[in-house]
Amino acid sequence: LGALTALTAREYARSYDRAADVQERIQVEPASGFGVLRLQQEFGREASTVGLTLTGVQRDLTSGEPLAAELNRRALSGGSDWNLRFKNGMYQLGGHLGFSHVEGDAGAIAAVQRASARYYQRPDIDYLTLDTTRTSLGGYSAGLYLSKNSGKHWLWGSSFWAESPGFELNDVGRLNSSDDAGLQVYLRYRETLPTRYLQNYQFEISSAGEWNYGGERQLSVAELAAELMLRNFWRIKGEFGYSTRAQSDKLTRGGPSMGSGRGWWGEAGLSNSFAATTRWELGLYTSRTELGSREVSARGQLSFRPGSRWELSLAPRFYRHISVRQYVTEAAGGRAETYGRRYIFATVDQRILSSQLRLNYAFTPDFSLEFYGEPFSARGTFYNFGELAAARSRDLRYYGSDGSTIQLDPAEDRYEITDGGQQFGFDDPDFFRLSFRSNLVLRWEWRPGSTLFLVWQQNRGEDRESGDGFGAGNLLDSFASAGNHFFALKLSYWLPVD
Questions:
Q1: Diameter of the chain by CA atoms?
Q2: Percent helix / strand / coil, the chain, rounded to 5
Q3: Closest Cα partner for 116 from 72, 180, 173, 175?
Q4: What does each C-alpha distance from 273 to 228, 232, 276, 299 come to in angstroms?
Q5: What is the distance between the alpha carbons of residues 97 and 53, in angstroms, rounded to a whole number?
Q6: To 5 degrees, how large is the angle CA 221–CA 226–CA 230?
Q7: What CA–CA distance (Å, rounded) separates 477 from 51?
Q8: d(Cα 345, Cα 382) in Å, to the nearest integer?
Q9: Residue 68 phi/psi, 5° resolution?
Q10: Using one digit for the tens of pLDDT, what is the confidence trace for 202-239?
Q11: Fewer CB within 10 Å, N side or C side of the chain?
Q12: Any idea where the domains of the chain sit in the sequence?
């Protein structure tokens, strides 16, 4: 049994209207109450479990006030879950059933319907209707899985999941997507006894598919994976995957369904023994699609202990992704094939360079210093702008062809397009961002169970011109970027209550 409740007061912020030269104090968060309840019971000789979860949010909002059009007044969610074990845990049958219910002003509920988790406003949808007069929305989720988790060689599993379009958890949890139902299966062969060259190994084949509630296939993938451990406990991993053509109800951000092409990806990794004093790991990933998108990333990690009190680690990463179907914006004046709207896409060449730094030092078993820092640099260059040619299509009508023109106005940093006698535009989406975030924590357990924490946190960042040079030097530049400093003191005291 576990329960958590929290109350928050109204929060205000100051705003400034430059044109009117007026300062205002506006409410940005209402008084709110949050609650979470969790019950779980273990039963039987197999240690099976059954559980129940309930969550609730109540906000003090009055109809007609600005925040009432943006936030739900009340949100409830809950569900049950179970995990039934058989034959000493060799087999498992589990699942869950859940619900959600949100209430609020019509504007707030309309925003939930339009949110990226469900997009009720899609013009080609025939199983949902956007109702801007609704003051509540409900939904459900369900899942079921069956697996074999132990045995000499063969293991397998299958799972099913579904989330109705109206399912919503984002008031007290996190939900990226609803309106989906999917199925996944896998088969694994493993050998746990050492051979001449290998300590153990396993191979796996898996497949998954997902559909929306209109029966439109959103995903269909198959994967092959292998993992080998050598006699010196080095580990080798590899994976290859393939995805078929499908439709996406998310790519146009509330517009019609858009096609996606075939693709494949591969990944490989190598690491030394977990027990080594100095540990290292390398990883490579690459992918391609039939439309021309491609991706490559490389990562590494090095951690070592120069002494009994010290621990250091460095984890650099490089990532490059050229996506030929990056959403940019939406505009009016489109053709009938796209329901009178223009869904504008571009090719984006995105590069990311980052590194995670960790340093831990123990002065005594009860007194330690811990540091974490991550310099980060990202640049994205957009080109080959165009609009969706027709609903359900994978193709674009590129600007600069088919009787259209496109021109960048450097003074306004804005693209201007002329197409069929119409003129429209949008801001240049290129970006170049540096950031550095760090935490420094001094920890002192001054008596058993009672601890004092002193925390210093930095959050630095800056935007640069997209044409500036991109390289490892940007990570060093991020240390000097402008930012904020946060200091915190936390004290926990153990009460010896029997």
A1: 81
A2: 5, 65, 35
A3: 175
A4: 12, 7, 5, 18
A5: 10
A6: 165
A7: 50
A8: 9
A9: -65, -20
A10: 999 999 999 999 999 999 999 999 999 999 999 999 99
A11: C
A12: 1-191, 232-498
Residue 107, token pair as written in the block: 């504007």
Q: How far apart are CA 44 and CA 83, in angstroms?
A: 12
Backbone dihedral region for residue 416 (phi beyond 0: left; psi -120 to 50: alpha; all else: beta): beta
**Closest alpha carbon to 167 in 145, 143, 187:** 143
Q: Encoding tokens for residue 5?
A: 């409740």
Q: What is the mean pLDDT of residues 409-431?
A: 94
Q: List, for residues 285-304, the tens digit of each pLDDT value.
A: 999 999 999 999 999 999 99
Report pTM: 0.89
Token representation of residue 339: 């329901």
Over the stretch 153-210, which tens digit does the pLDDT of each residue have?
999 999 999 999 999 999 998 999 999 999 999 999 999 999 999 999 999 999 999 9
Cα distance between residue 192 and residue 228, in whole Å: 11
Place of tokens 């969550």: 55
The rounded distance, in Å, linking the Cα atoms of 105 and 397 is 40
